[in-house]
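Batch 3, record 17
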Amino acid sequence: MEDRTSRSAWWLLLAAGVVWVVLAMNLWGNADHQEVSYTAFRQDVAADQVASVVLSGSSITFTLRDAAARQLETTAPSPPDPGFWQLIDRHHVEVWAHAGDSSTLWWTIGLVAIPVIAVLLFWRRGNEPGAGGLPTTFSFNQSKARLYLSDRPRITFEDVSGVDEAKAELQDVVDFLRLPARYHRVGARIPKGVLLMGPPGTGKTLLARALAGEARVPFLSLSATEFVEMYVGVGAARVRDLFEKARSRAPCVIFLDEIDAVGRRRGTGVANVNDEREQTLNQLLAEMDGFDPSAEIVIVAATNRPDVLDPALLRPGRFDRRVVVGLPDRSGRRAILDIHLRRVPLAADVDPDALAAATPGLSGAELANLVNEAAVVAARADRVQVDAADFELARDKILLGGRRRGKLILEDRRVIAFHEAGHALVAFYVPGADPVRKISIIPHGFALGATHMVPDDERVNLPRSYLEGRMAVALGGRAAEQLVFGEITSGAEADLREATRIARMMVTRWGMARHLAPAALAPDPGTEGPDLLERPFSEDLAARIDQEVLEVADHVLHRAQDILGAHRAHLERLAEILLQEESIDRARFEEIASAS
Ligand code: ADP
Ligand code: MG
Ligand code: ZN
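Prediction for the assembled complex:
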């Protein structure tokens, strides 16, 4: 919306400019006669060369009697020439007097003043807390940063739902921007760079604006795609300009949307565009490093491709705080729907809870779209309320249209729920495993679901039982699929890799093989190049190592299956609850897993 208003404002300014030029040309178009001295004018009159004069204020325009009827111009002296009329009479010069002298003056003033006033006005609006104004793009190099300043309807954390963890992580940034003195006083430094990462439409942009809104500071927003133009150097200049603007407005928030457009790993891609991007990225890095550490400016960037970012961007002092903005779970969707349902009059049969349950995998943006689509259906039918059937239609359209993701999720959810429940339950019942912090069946990146575990304390020395426990947890997903469905899926790829990695380390580095004497069977850590390929053992031993690795994996898989078989009821219940709620935190999980 901001985009549209500022664009139309630009069109208006452009139109006004055109009108102004046309008017100006009309008024002054005939007026660009050659200017001569008053003396020359007198001489021309005296020589009977002048046919007529036009008097307009102090300006005298006169037409010569030559064949071309040339027009010249002069200015009457200010102590008036006493002999003027006599001279004119004597030489029969025709006199025209323009009554419009003062009006011309006013026109002139108006024509000069209007654009000046307009520019000043827009300039002030763009700069001062007060209104959005125009994007302050007055020169080629200036960044197209849009400013959203305080007294337009402010977006706060209340407008963002279903991302409570991200909001919690941003809270101290808000506090810092609001009360910087409190932090400076004790020498506390706050992250300068916050990277919001998550799938499209999960509310990253919204969250960044809400951050500024909460802190009541200016919000300078620029999409990184706008940095990267075909003209080399423009991007870098825009970055410089953006930071300059920010410095004069601190405390404030700079928001770089779609940072991956500039922040891709350097050294890949097409030459020309790439040079430009690298320059822009380098400038960005330089600006971030050159920041006065006490400057009250927070740079927020957003991306849905954190994997392609240049590592330089993620180094300490740059975007070192990373906040995941994930797809909402069921209760999150309910909360997001509540926000967007406020705008539409609902029929009595609409149940927001049921709606949230029926829309797994949808992002905040898609939910907002769902509400809108439903309202459109109702409007088309000329109804004044949006009913459940409208939502049904809208949902089908969104789930089936374009992407198959939503539908796919509906079909696979059961398998995923059991898979994740398997990981979590094995973790719960295998002795010494890390506690489960959170389980979710919301797709994230390439992973279909996730079971997050955190060690209670940092371990340095890893006992074999712990390592085998970790492998069992990794294979718990596969074990659950097998147990419940008698069928296995490709969903365990990453799990298998993890388990195999641990098994190989146990056998080759830590001397934990069952049928081999303890020996270092891997190249020394840090070995590189051709040495890495050189095995310090025979072909025969290599085969036995592989055998050992497979044996550990097999042993551990059976362990996982045994655990799940013994806790089948827990597994079923956990999976059902996951299907219902989509994500479960540690306390709730432990309650379910230990229930009798
Ligand atoms: P992103 O930047 O992550 O792609 P946006 O912030 O642009 O997503 O989201 C687009 C729109 O979708 C928002 O303006 C808002 O209307 C809606 N939306 C997305 N996520 C949320 C959320 N978590 N809470 C409320 N509304 C949301
Ligand atoms: Mg966005
Ligand atoms: Zn898994």
